[in-house]
Amino acid sequence: MGLRIDQGRLLRWPHEDHRVLGTDQIVEDSGMALKRMVLEMGQGTDIRGADSTKAAERAVRDALWRNNLQIADALGQPREKMDILVRIGAPRADTVDKGAVAAVFPYGKIEVICEEGGLEIANPNREDSTLLVHAAVVVRMDVPDALKGEAT
Fold first, then answer.
1. Which of 47, 67, 95, 140 is most buried, taking the most CB atoms under 10 A from its CB?
2. What are 140's strand-pairing partners?
3. Chain centroid to CA 144: how far?
4. How many domains does the chain have?
5. What are the E-state strand segments in 47-125?
6. pLDDT tens sequence across 44-61
7. What is the 8-class DSSP label of residue 106?
């Protein structure tokens, strides 16, 4: 467990305020400073099955598939060191399989947070519904001292 800096306050990680994606830095117990490098957003649907996990996976893919960011390479670090926070807004958020959502990522340390959100639309003349799920993906990296002034 680490500490998080939020508007000048130190918070234990995880803390209920960790859902605030505007956080600038995370300070781990080791003293490593993580700097937010990327914020991507996506939307996913399950048109007929009302499956929150399937729609969440699609939302994450939507956020990722339109990008080819070379953040880790530019910082001279392995991609596995990416600290990735995924925030999912879905109907029936407690039914989202966080492991399945995390498995969409090819590398990095992944944390998935699910909360009520999105949209559910009843399908007329049927017993199912269409789900709309949103994903926000924040990528943080340890910024070497020599680059800290440039990465702000």
1. 140
2. 36, 83
3. 23
4. 1
5. 83-90, 109-116, 119-122
6. 999 988 999 999 999 999
7. S
